[in-house]
Write a structure and sequence with these properties.
Rossmann fold, alpha/beta, 7-stranded parallel sheet, binds NADPH dihydro-nicotinamide-adenine-dinucleotide phosphate, globular, 4-stranded mixed sheet, binds magnesium ion
Length: about 375
């Protein structure tokens, strides 16, 4: 089952699934793009879909499509519970992915996780749910897939540090980012992705969210997690071992590789992806991230170390700020400013229940909206 099927990861997951005869798609979900979703269902033979947007669900039903259409946030839950697939690939964007992550793990179903936000927001509550239900969380994110593959090849106790690589985004090397446009921020140098993660890559918030994701996925303290900028995006991550060795995972930046590994690993399937031509590549370069020009990476690490619901507050503030930037309401540099101010304003004690997370998410969004209003009052889109 693929959630977020109409998005960048969802489309690539359908491509991967079409290459293997032993994968059957039992259901697909999206937000509002019902025409594409129904076409995907017809192409894959899925007889049930869910559309989080009720109006879109009603339109899909009215179209006379002969499968089952579930509607609303509850509809995604119904789809998972009624189809009971072996694996749910969650490629929904943003904290909207948390609910389906909870349902999947509560049902004891394996979760192939692209939606990093649900692990950032849900943290220990999500990993505890997976353990309680004996349900695996398998990473789809390329860096975490690389780390997962590297770690599983080593015996326990020998992995010292995990090193996540970051492309650095389109503004790497620049220190003055006040005037950059939406179009410039959406032009990622090495990866083709949905809009929200592309902006997160430009601010380096994506790498910050990935640090928190890695902390939870691999149960590794932040002190043993590093980030290194690698502009070619050919080394997908590295581990260091107690004997001083480093192991790296290399390949073209093509998300079908980690998606296929999440669905088939440790087996591999044939993909139309060539190994790197190292002589043509020539040089791989690495540099320290610039957390003065890109404060989001520092803010995310601090929120992760602070723990409690600070990562939930960070994520909610970031989602509001990125949407405001994409709507032309704030400059690029407004994104870390808003996240910083919301983190300072919203207390973030630990969550005992998922309801606490939803409450904190709401408080953080309200605080971010207040920030946006006060900025607008103080001089429009600054
Ligand atoms: P896109 O914006 O391309 O796609 C988002 C998908 O989520 C769409 O199918 C959208 O449906 C669906 N969606 C949005 N809200 C809901 C909801 N409430 N319920 C059900 N479906 C919903 O995003 P990406 O594919 O780029 O990213 C998806 C996730 O994967 C993100 O968490 C991202 O961080 C992560 N990721 C992405 C990578 C990439 O290369 N793109 C790499 C690594 C991780 P609709 O079309 O109807 O709006
Ligand atoms: Mg990634």
């Amino acid at each position: 089952m693929i959630l977020g099927a109409t998005g960048s990861i969802g489309e690539q997951a359908l491509d991967v699934a079409s290459r293997s005869a032993d994968l059957r798609i039992t259901g697909l979900a999206a937000d509002s793009d019902w025409e594409r979703l129904v076409a995907q269902a017809d192409a894959t033979g899925a007889r049930a879909v869910a559309l989080a947007d009720e109006t879109a669900a009603a339109a899909a039903r009215a179209s006379g499509w002969d499968g089952t259409v579930h509607g609303g946030e509850e509809g995604v839950r119904e789809l998972i519970v009624s189809a009971r697939p072996e694996v749910v690939l969650n490629a929904i964007v943003g904290s909207a992915g948390l609910g389906p992550t909870i349902v999947t793990l509560s049902e004891g179903i394996e979760l192939a996780l692209a939606n990093k936000e649900s692990l950032v927001v849900g943290g220990e509550l999500v990993t505890a749910l997976a353990e309680a239900g004996d349900a695996r969380i398998v990473p789809v994110d390329s860096e975490h897939s690389a780390l997962h593959q590297l770690i599983r090849s080593e015996p326990p106790g020998v992995v010292d540090r995990l090193v996540l690589t970051a492309s650095g985004g389109p503004f790497r090397g620049r220190s003055e980012l006040g005037g950059v446009s939406r179009e410039q921020a959406l032009a990622h140098p090495t990866w083709e992705m949905g809009g929200k993660i592309t902006i997160d890559s430009a601010t380096l918030m994506n790498k910050g969210l990935e640090l928190i994701e890695a902390h939870h996925l691999f149960a590794v303290p932040y002190g043993r997690l590093d980030v290194i900028v690698h502009p070619q995006s050919l080394v997908h991550s590295l581990i260091t071992l107690v004997d001083g060795s480093m192991l790296a995972h290399l390949g073209h930046p093509d998300m079908r590789v980690p998606i296929a590994y999440a669905l088939h690993g440790p087996d591999r399937i044939d993909l139309p992806v060539e190994p790197l031509d190292l002589a043509a590549v020539g040089a791989l370069t690495f540099e320290e991230p610039d957390t003065d020009a890109f404060p989001c990476l520092r803010l995310a690490r601090e929120a992760g170390v602070a723990g409690g619901t600070a990562p939930c507050v960070l994520n909610a503030a970031n989602e509001v700020a990125v949407a405001a930037f994409l709507a032309g309401e704030i400059p690029f540099t407004g994104i870390p400013e808003i996240v910083d101010r919301v983190l300072a304003a919203v207390p973030a004690p630990p969550a005992a229940h998922f309801a606490d997370l939803y409450e904190r998410d709401r408080e953080a969004r309200e605080a971010a909206e207040r920030e946006l209003r006060s900025r607008a009052a103080a001089g429009g889109a600054r």
